[in-house]
Structures are given as structure tokens and as C-alpha cells.
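Hi C.,

You asked whether I'd gotten around to modeling the 240-residue construct. I have! Everything is below, sequence then structure, no commentary in between.
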Amino acid sequence: NQKVNQFQAESDLYTIIVEEFFRMMYLFHKCENSRKENMMKLIRQIQLLIKASSSPHLFNEWTGEDKLPSKYAQVIKNCKTWKNEKVAIGTTFKDTAQDYYLHLSKVFGHRPVFLITGDDSFKKRNSIIRQFEASGNGILVSTQQSLKSSVNIPTCNKVIVTDMQWNIPKISQYYFRFIRFNSTEKKEVYFLTYDKTIEQNILALLMRKEQLNDVIKTKEYKEDSQIFAEFDIDMDIFNS
């Protein structure tokens, strides 16, 4: 688990969504039923908080000018550290994946960068995956949902999950495209999250669900510390 901190523009946007959500209502179609509209506000607010933890600079309210979000900076730093290895980056939003592809292509001019989204045909996805596997140090950006269970990419050993989903099996369906039963090399999967944001709540929720899953699967109860250790997550998550 890699935690990053928001800088001022990210924090300002997050504060607007939490405290002045009415300013963001233009993004949604208003329900005719006022009772339903009131219930939808909370869901929409949560959706925006999650989106702001993915690509905050794509909001009109962004005040960071041309500065990239902290998550992007961490992804770029990781890719530079793993300069001689293949790297896979999985988002949940299509526009976030496209934006990562755009910026990484600029930063790594001579390094191959690939993009897969749900809009691509199965044939095109296979073609891109073959090119990625043939590259020595390519970077594959994709939405997690676009790499289904039939996809095998065993030569990539570094995986970055930039956005959380609502349960571990959904996320693992993505990163297990790279961890295969016949894999011979060690794989590293990184959950990239913003500290002191809704992502820490989601991460804690994922651990609670995984704790319950283990009880169902093994009939054994794991302590919080065991679950957190398994996913390399600091227990201080709840303090943030």
C-alpha cells in the first residue's frame, strides 16, 4: 500500500465537495422527485469524492493550474524507478486511464506506453497486449474492468492499482491477469491511495469484507492485524 498526501489544490477541491457540494450540482441531472433527489445527493457526493481521488485536475474547480496530482507524480516516480521493467497501471475511470496515457507518453518519450479501455475490441486488446509483452520496459495503462479473466500477461511483474473498487475480488480480477498459476517471478502489486480521504475508508471497508470472506472460506477468524499485514497496510489507517 502506497499512501500519498494531497497538496493544496487537491485538498481545496476535496473540501469544496465535502463542505460546498451545492457548487457541484451542475454535474448531475436533477430528479423530479424531491425525496429521491435528497437521497441521491449523498450518493453523488461520495461519487465525486472518489472521482476527486482519481483525477482531481479534470474538475472545473481545479486550481492547481498545470501541476499534476500527487498520485500522478507517484506513478511517474514508480515508473522511473522501474525503468527496465514492464509496468501495468489500472484505473476504474476511462477518462483517468486516457489522461494517464497522455501524460506518461509525454514524460517517457522513448518508452512505449499502451492504453486499453472497454471501448477497444477484443482483437485490438490482444494486439496491444502482444506489443506490450514484446516490449522490454513498456507501460500498460488500462481500466481494471477492460482486462477480463481470459487475459494473460505473465511477463509483467509491477502492477499499480490507482483506484479502489468495492471488493477485493473485483480488484484481484485485474491484478491476477499478471499473477498466473505458472508464474515463476515475484510480482508486486501496489494500492495507491490518498491519505485522509474517502479512499482510506474504502480500503478499511475492503479489509472488513476480506475478513468476512476468510471466515466463510476457511471457518477461521483473522484478527485485524493479520488482514492488514497480508495487504501491507498500516493500522494507522483508522486514525486518518
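If it helps when you're writing up: Residues 1 and 191 are 5 Å apart (CA to CA).

Thanks,
B.
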